Amino acid sequence: MMSIGKNGVCAAMALGIALGGCNSLDKRADDQNEPRLVIPVDERAAITAPVTPPPISGGTLSVLSDDSLAIVADPDRDRISIVDLKTLAVRSTIALQAGDEPGRSVEDGQKHVHVALRRGGAVLSLDPATGTVLSRRTVCKAPRGIAFESATGLLHVACSEGKLVSLLAQGGEPVRTLTLEPDLRDVLVRGNELWLTRFKSAEILRVSGVGALNAKIKIPRAQATLSQPAGDNDLSEGQTLKDVTVEPGVAWRAVASPAGGLTVVHQDTVTDEIPISPPSASGSSYGGGSGPSCDGIVKNVVTTVAADGSQVSTKFVGAPLPVDVAVSPDQRWVAIAQAGTADFSAPRPFLKFPGEQGPTGTGPTVTGKAGFGFGQSVTILSTADMKTSPCAFAQGGLGNAPATAVAFTSSGILLVQLREPAQLLIQRMLPFGTTETVALEGESRADTGHDLFHRDAGGGIACASCHPEGGEDGHTWRFAGFGDRRTQALHVGLRDTAPFHWAGDLANVGELMSEVFVGRMGGVRETEARVSALSEWLFALPAPAPIRDATDEAAQRGQALFQSTEVGCTTCHSGPKLTDNRSVAVDSVATTKLQVPSLIAVGYRAPFMHNGSPPPWRLASIRRAAAINTATRPHSVRLSAAIWLRIWNRSSTTRSVLQQEHVLLMCRNAQRLRLFEAWQLGPTEPKR
């Protein structure tokens, strides 16, 4: 471990000017002659959008191959704007159904464009020259990536529930549907293979032309540094840096590379134990506070994967949430859209020095510089620097408003999509140059809750860093004093499920903000109205689409077993949210109570349990279920239990007390209850 030393003074001074008061998290020096940290209140008015904006997903911009038009999908307003890149004007706007949430788009060989409707469950085909819709075809529950294969004339659609659907671009029903693994993201045509990314794991699946899984590419763990507060307000100590291991995850966007592989922008997360301490002049527990760096608990990373599977990864400095990436045609520049830029109009924590006048009129004043935060709308990296730097710095950038997508024309012009207000930026020279703006117009989607969730809290991290798209990152954190803690999902219908957090010890969103947003992420306090705006936005998050249909036979068998008194799942997991909201000891020797989690959409959330355990079925309980009197129990229930036994016996022989004594926390709600068999085991289930 090494100390940054007196550089911490600069970091502390950068914490900024702000108005507001103090609370219990303010760091008061024992010596009244020492400076102290003040955490102000953001008293700006709360804004609620007329239509709740969805979580940011990114990658919603494409350019036609002849550089004539840009296709701008707008999930906030459920529309597609077609922008003429010669006149820099909106040529046409296509209104979609409410809740369609348009995402990725691709051009085919006939210059038609096909757009994946993320919540509409369909592919929309349109003629961009005339702005007319050609067709709307249902493909799956949750389309994510889309690609066109010129050799076959097929569109390939990657679906979050794990399906890969292929259909002719010029019309008709799907010609092939493969069931792969859940959480699929992008799909790319790479020679005679399709390469698919998985969102939370950042894995790459290589699928052959005949539909066989050829290989999996896993980005390896890496070494990095983590900055931590040295303690209280000791400016002479500054921050400390320690070496840590990070693992890849949250693959926001992957694009094809000319050599046959891909470039993916993703996050890396710390796997080492993270000390938790109150905010101080030298930063927050989750890193940051000393200026832009690669030293927080969540890192921005660009990884290039060659056709042979070899990889080069580069961490880079920038705002949180790198939701899109584009590579210039000459391969000199990589542009990343950053959706988590800091809100520089917000107050920031600041230091009060003795003897100075302060905003309360009682003595000290605020000393410092303007509000502190991370990054620009777009980070422009030099590929030459990326090859040599362990933490690449931007060579250029533009703006501060959150960006949701980037794309290059074939001549190297950079296009950037902003969500609020809806705009398309055009930068003709890199890394610096003048920027032209095309206003896309439309009703405002400014929303305080949405902003609080997505923007840099102050320590180089946003709520959405660990809860991408309102869900969870699949990561198990190691917090000192708490143990292993698996990131909790938020899109499960949080309303009426308080108290919150793992132990259920936080009564409401306000307490959660105080504990995490302020206490660990470097944020400031928020007024009751602003906290309420965040609560309402979180409560409105829709659950992911079910992986299996309610009519699926395996799902129905799982439902029967889940509801049976012999298994007893509904003792705790009951009601519309599949939780009774209690905090209970989960095994016979537990000293800490944990809140009963909702099991809505649990099929997407492996690894499971509060500590990210392997599948936690208790062997004794499964055997008990398998031994149910065959004369009185349906064959399907006995079959389900037998399948669980088989899976259990194949899993690790090392089991925690928790795993040995807790039962069957593997179901979700697709209007009805479903067990693991319903969303994972179906393809390998023995024939009846």
Could you list some keywords that capture this structure?
688 residues, alpha+beta, Methylamine Dehydrogenase, Chain H, 2 domains, seven-stranded mixed beta sheet, four-stranded antiparallel beta sheet, 11 helices, globular, disordered N terminus, disordered C terminus
In short:
With 688 residues, the protein is an alpha+beta fold.
What does this protein structure show overall?
The structure is a single chain. Helix content is 13%, strand content 32%. It is α+β, with helices and mostly antiparallel strands. The protein has two domains: 61-449, YVTN repeat-like/Quinoprotein amine dehydrogenase (Methylamine Dehydrogenase, Chain H); 553-684, no CATH class. The strands form twelve sheets. Strands 1, 20, 21, 22, 24, 25 and 31 form a seven-stranded mixed β-sheet that branches. Strands 4-5-6-7 form a four-stranded antiparallel β-sheet, with no helix packed on it. Helix 3 (448-454) crosses helix 6 and helix 8 packs antiparallel against helix 9 (635-650).
